[in-house]
Design goal:
globular, 13% strand, 8 helices, five-stranded parallel beta sheet, single chain, 40% helix
Length: 214
């Protein structure tokens, strides 16, 4: 499958009447109030790989430990902020850009943000990382073979895509570019949900996030 050529979104120059306002209360103060280290967990992978299931399990574990979190699910984002976007390459790029900007705002609020969306293109995932910096961004590759995702097909999407009913479907008629060096690589064909969630929690512990036991 050929990798699509995705045009870079044009940079819109700031209007001469627009100036950035610096808040008197910074991210560090907000995080200190919450007693946690803000982070973005960016979970990428094919439809049916297990992103949403693992994301929910991780958020539940963090919530039990008293952490302030927010889960940004790709499907849910398309019901609201991104409901004007289709699934062309250009619209997928914009979908990731908007989600990354929202995640950045929540990071500034001192939250631990879990983003769960296919986000098929490496370039856009890199731009999401660059918005906040490498020390606050963890790319999580939720990896499952395409054939297994087709077998799972929890939403019936692969069957419809293979029948030609869904154009631009990732893994079928649209490319997916797997991460080359993710901070966390989860194999959902080899481990169960609890073990995979624990892998993420272990990485957060090593990065200074206090995570209690089950």
């Amino acid at each position: 499958m050929n990798t699509p050529v995705v045009a870079a979104p044009s940079a819109r120059p700031a209007a001469p009447t627009v100036f950035r306002t610096v808040s008197a209360i910074g991210k560090g103060a907000r995080a200190e109030l919450k007693g946690q280290r803000p982070s973005i967990l960016w979970m990428t992978g094919l439809s049916g790989a297990g992103k949403s299931t693992i994301a929910n399990r991780v958020e539940e574990a963090l919530w039990r430990c008293g952490h302030h979190t927010m889960l940004l699910d790709g499907d849910n984002m398309r019901f609201g902020l991104n409901n004007d976007l289709a699934f062309t390459d250009a619209d997928r790029v914009e979908n990731i850009r908007r989600t990354a900007e929202v995640a950045k705002l929540m990071l500034e609020a001192g939250l631990i943000v879990i983003c769960s969306l296919i986000s098929p293109f490496r370039r856009e995932r890199m731009l999401a990382r660059q918005l906040v910096g490498a020390d606050e961004f963890l790319e999580v590759f939720v990896d499952a073979p395409l054939d297994l995702c087709k077998q799972r097909d929890p939403k019936g999407l692969y069957a419809r895509a293979l029948a030609g009913q869904i154009p631009n479907f990732t893994g079928i008629s649209s490319s997916y570019e797997p991460p080359e060096a993710p901070e966390i690589h989860l194999r959902t064909d080899m481990h169960d949900v609890d073990a995979l969630a624990e892998q993420i929690l272990d990485v957060l512990r090593r990065r200074g996030v206090t995570v209690c036991g089950p």
